From TrEMBL:
This is META domain-containing protein. InterPro entries: DUF306_Meta_HslJ, HslJ-like_sf, Hsp_HslJ-like. It holds the Pfam family META. It comes from the Bacteria. Residues 44-129, 142-249 form the DUF306 domain. It comes from Catellatospora bangladeshensis.
Length: 262
């Protein structure tokens, strides 16, 4: 009877406390797989889901178009995000990207179960399973200096526009307090002093080839960004430059030199 009593006091599971998400704080995860209704599903080409768990308990996510974020609760092995408090930017994107945004926001607000196994995070509901890997092991941050950053998009507050030129044709390179690159029409250069998460641009110059139409608009956006103090952020192979007025650039590592550099 004593033995039976002792067994009856044992918990039915391992007795480990339910995870509270503390081990996720301060980490960013990148998607590696998506299953919907039991079948593997592809994301929109060229996109990847990014999920960041901030130390203050908030989460942020990017599904390829808009950024979203809000307060989160990971206790009990479930992620709870109040849909009413999930703030989302309102950038104009393709229908496919908007649908992907909605899919991720729906997942985050559906109280998905979560599990962390090593550096792999899984979020799952009855119909969706999203697998992500810690960005530090999946795709480490690149160095600002010594990397060719190709401009992919220009940003004007909540509006994002793709670059109307061949991939890699507009780029920036940083080294020894300087920036060089191409606007897609003219070569540029000048000073770029890094301090924390800020870059202070000064003395920016460019060659004087005439640029009309979309190339002229693009050049003006690039040159306007490279003015004064700009906030920069690197996540894996992506760089964001954002000015105080909300104007900025989205860039990505370019593997090969652009023909326009010559």
């Amino acid at each position: 009877m004593l033995l039976l009593g002792a067994c009856a006091q044992q918990p039915s599971d391992t007795g480990a406390p339910a995870p509270d998400g503390a081990q996720l704080a301060g980490r960013t995860f990148l998607s590696t797989g998506l299953v919907r209704d039991g079948k593997p599903s592809e994301l929109v080409q060229g996109t990847r889901i990014t999920l960041t768990v901030h130390p203050d308990g908030r989460i942020g996510a990017i599904a390829g178009c808009n950024s979203m974020g809000g307060a989160a609760d990971f206790t009990g092995g479930k992620l709870h995000v109040d849909g009413a408090s999930l703030a989302t930017t309102e950038m104009g994107c393709s229908p496919e990207l908007h649908a992907q945004d909605k899919m991720i926001s729906d997942l985050l607000t559906a109280d998905p179960r979560w599990d962390l196994n090593g550096d792999v995070l899984t979020l799952r509901t009855d119909t969706v399973q999203l697998t992500l890997q810690d960005q530090e092991s999946a795709d480490p941050d690149r160095s600002l200096a010594g990397t060719r950053w190709a401009v992919e998009s220009t940003v004007d507050k909540d509006s994002v526009s793709s670059v109307p030129t061949k991939p890699g044709g507009v780029y920036l390179e940083f080294a020894d307090g300087k920036v060089t690159g191409s606007t897609g029409c003219n070569r540029l250069g000048g000073n770029a002093v890094v301090n924390g998460d800020k870059i202070t641009f000064s003395g920016i110059f460019s060659t004087r080839r005439a640029c009309s139409g979309d190339l002229g608009t693009l050049e003006r956006a690039v040159m306007k960004t490279l003015r004064g103090e700009v906030t920069y952020k690197i996540t894996a192979d992506r760089l964001e430059l954002t000015g105080a007025d909300g104007q900025g650039l989205q860039l990505r590592v370019s593997a090969a030199p652009s023909p326009s550099a010559s």
